[in-house]
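FW: tagging you since you asked about this chain on Friday. Here's the raw sequence from the shared folder, copied in full. Didn't touch anything.
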Amino acid sequence: MIKRTLHDLQQMIHGAELVGESNLSIHGVSINSRDDLAGKLFIPIKGERFNGHKFVKDAFQKGAVASLWEKNELDYPKDVPLIMVEDTVAAIQQLSQAYRNELNVKVVGVTGSNGKTSTKDMVYAVLSSVFNVQKTEGNLNNHLGLPLSILKAAEDTEVLVLEMGMSSRGEIELLSKIAEPDAAIITNIGESHLQDLGSREEIAEAKLEITAGLKDHGALIYFGDEPLLQERVGRYEHAKLISFGQENTNDYYPNVVMQDRSGTTFSSNKALQSFYIPVLGKHNVYNALAAVAVGQAFDVPLKDIVSGLSKLELTQMRAEVIPGRNGSTIINDAYNASPTSMKAAIKLLQDLEGYREKYLVLGDMLELGDLEEEFHLETGKTVDPTKVDYVYTYGNLGQWIARGAKEKLGVGRVKSFLDKNELVRELVSVIGEKDAILVKASRGMKLEEVVEALKGDG
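HL: got it, structure written out here
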């Protein structure tokens, strides 16, 4: 984590003014007054419904060494060390950018409509086989989370793997300019944020903002099966373009993919030997190919790339395989959902073999705009009745998934629920040994509660 004197911090933040002793040192930063603040710099953030300046005194009582303070905020405490700034959000961003540039570190930025976190985890697995690597924790991928991730990096960090999220245009551009990546990954272009951006074309433009801070001759690693990316990447002459995907027109593509109950083995056109990832789903093979591409761009030996991927640990609720009640198997993919990722999850379950019966438990996909009902209906129609036994849906929009699924599976194999407890009771009554249950929905539907209820034999 960042360790600097208050004088150092003043120099790293534009227009900052120091009130108090300049030789005091901080060890880390926090924007949350409920954290362990011993030795840290507290950064009060203002939002529509809160003002962190109200908690500055509490922060010092919890051990903070110093705090930022916006100059237009009145009644600042006179008896504690403060760094006066114009805007605390801008200040933490400036501080993180300055710290990133003081470190002898390479940066990998990861964005995309789906698969950002899984790909980040895979890149970390590959690079940490030979480098000292730090990655974004959880999904701290916005205008505050990314700076905090940088400021948590130890001085001896060699590579930072940073996830970059967005809800509107300009946000990824800001993050890229802060991080200044040496390599940037775009996992895909989906339908998330259609409500805000209006079209997939606009989503593609927003994701390509990751090139804004990309170093000259840095690698832009992108999903080459997406026409919206293929049409646009040629404009980035300062980048080394590397594509991955299913088609053999890509720089990286899989030759053979084999899936068992615990993971996936695949080979690639770029390597004679096979790779194993302890996670299910062909879409995750594409994510792994992006990680392989990063590894080779960073000169990681192939044997270490293979070893790193085999030890992969994904963030929770990303195709997470869990023992369920009555000898069943749960695939918890409930962190988030869009039409693209939902169809990938459906295919994941359909490709599994060796199970007695297979259940899809699908909930609403949010933030899809005016076409949300159509997206849900079409998702239901993609279910293959020869490879899935039952479809259960949850939520108002989930009813449209059920309507589409009934066209393929018939009425008797599809059930729709508006009450989560009723859904759980029905599942508990029917699932048994050697059944597989895949659970997926947008984060707001909280289907992890269904997963918890189906775990083990409790």
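FW: The two ends are 41 Å apart (CA to CA).
HL: agreed, and The mean pLDDT is 94.
FW: great, closing this out.
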